[in-house]
Every structure is written in C-alpha cells, then in structure tokens.
Write a structure and sequence with these properties.
Number of helices: 15
Helix content: 55-70%
Oligomer: single chain
Number of strands: 0
Low-confidence stretches: 316-328
Mean pLDDT: 88
Structural class: mainly alpha
Shape: globular
Largest sheet: none
Distance between the termini: 60 Å
Strand content: under 5%
Length: 328
Amino acid sequence: MPTAGYVHVLDPYYASITLLITIGYQLAFFAVAWTFKFDKVTDFAGGTNFFFLALFTLLCGGINHPNDARSIIASIFVMVWALRLSGFLLFRILKSGSDSRFDDKRDNFFKFLGFWVFQMVWVWTVSLPLTFLNSPEVQRYAQPSFGAPSDIAGVVLWAVGFLIEALADQTKYTYKKKNPKHFCDYGIWGWSRHPNYFGEIVLWWGIWSLCLAPAIRGDISGRAVAALWVAIVSPVFITALLFGISGLPLQEKPAQKKQAEGDDPDAYIDYLDRTSIFFPVPPALYRPLPRFIKRSIMLDFPFYQYDGLRRESLPHRNSNQSRHDDRR
C-alpha cells in the first residue's frame, strides 16, 4: 500500500540528485586541491560525501514512515563508517604530510581530475543500496518490520566488517609509528595481508543485505523491487575495485618489490607463506595449505606476485633455504 511522507527530488530513485550532489561536492574539493596543489583532502572528500548522501536521502525520504527503523539504521551505519574512515584518513595524511599516489598526477590537470572523477563514480555507485532504500519509489510503499533474516545478516556483516577495518587501520598506524621500516605483521595483520580491504568489502555486502528486505518481504512491486536488487552493483563494484584496480594490484607487487630489495626479503617471503592475502586465517592453518589452494580459493592469484621475490632469485639465498620454498 502506498504511503506518504517523502520528498520527491528530480526522480523517484534519488539517482539524479545524489549524482549531482556528488559531482558538485567532488569538484569543489578538486578546485581547492588543484589550485593549491593540496592533496590532503582527497580521501576526506570521498568519505564525507558518503555521509552527506546518507543524511540527505534519509531526511528526504527515509524517515517519518511506519517501520522506518531499517532506513534509519542503514543510514546511521553508512554515516558512522564514513566519519570514521574520512577522519582517520585525514588524520593520517596530516601526520605523514603527503600522498605518494599523486606524485605523478599533482601537476597534470587531466590526470588529477581523472582521480576525482573516479571518486565520484565510487561514491555514487557504492551508495546506491541506501539511496534506493530511502527513495520515494521504495518508501511510497509500506515497509516490512525490521528483523527479517536479511536485516540480521546485514547488521552482522556490517558490524564484523566495520570492526575489522577499524582495527586494521589503527593497528597498522600504531605499528608503523614504532616500526617505520618494517612491514606490519602484528595483530590482525598476522592473519590477513589486507584486513582493511576485507572489512570494507564485508560491510558493504552487509549494507546491501540490510537494504534488501522490502524487495524480499515488503509490500512493494515493480521497479521498486528491481531497484533494490540492482543495487547489488554496490558491493560488486567495491569488491571488483579492491581486487582488480585500486586495492590489491596497487599494494601487493609494490610491497613485494620493496621487500625484495630490502635487508631481509626472506622474512617477507615467510610472511607471505603464512599469511592469507585476504581472508583472516590463523597462520597455523594457512601455511600448510597447498599452493594451488592459496592461488585459487584463497584468492592469492599469480598476477599479484612479484617474480623477483622468489627465494632462488635472491642474491644471498643459501642452499638450505630451498627446502622451505613452497611459495612459488
């Protein structure tokens, strides 16, 4: 049954208005960053953009309805995540002073702009489950009561992902302050080489699950149902992004190359042998896994590997190390 209490802005899905807000918000920060060659606000702009989209769609469409707990909880989850991440990244960049990702872009207008355009796509696309949940197209129908299996699954996934990502960020930051020249293998980083990515992917699958109940159990139909299912593009996008573009591909090989040229590459090879690339797994369970399991099910694909880190390629390798070499 249709209900009232929402604000219609441009289209019934809030897709257009959230896209315009995102473009305007990112271009404003880009203008500051380009004018002053100032890259300390880039990640802050991305995180806070999520916050304002969640707040805007909640206030315009996601509250003042019967059974609006789902919209409120999902919106708060996104805002809490956005504030924590953007605050942490701003604090970190202010302490470090610069962001090496922009060393080859800072003085090139189109390369630098390209990063901000991609950030627009990232923010808008990943926000879609919440955008659609709070939109008039969905909220004009009576919403099912909070507590559906997809709600519970969403809350659990978000909580697990959020806690792991926050713990990973804080652990590595604290560790690197005390050990700036050593790779972090402490705490959760001893179970996963990228626990922050694991946490972020898991929490966005949780947000999508949390937003899905009206399509599964609610009194909605047609395009509203389709929109909530199509919003799966959000967790799929963040998963593909971190596995194929800006996450593991930019972290794994450079880190392995750096360690291969360092003072103790064998220690890093041992770290790779015992530590999962993605899923948090105790080293005692991960180390003995066959190589083909690590390269497939455990997602440590061959294209993430730096060939120069093979034990046999290291100039100081001695003969008694060979029997331990099950990495390649």
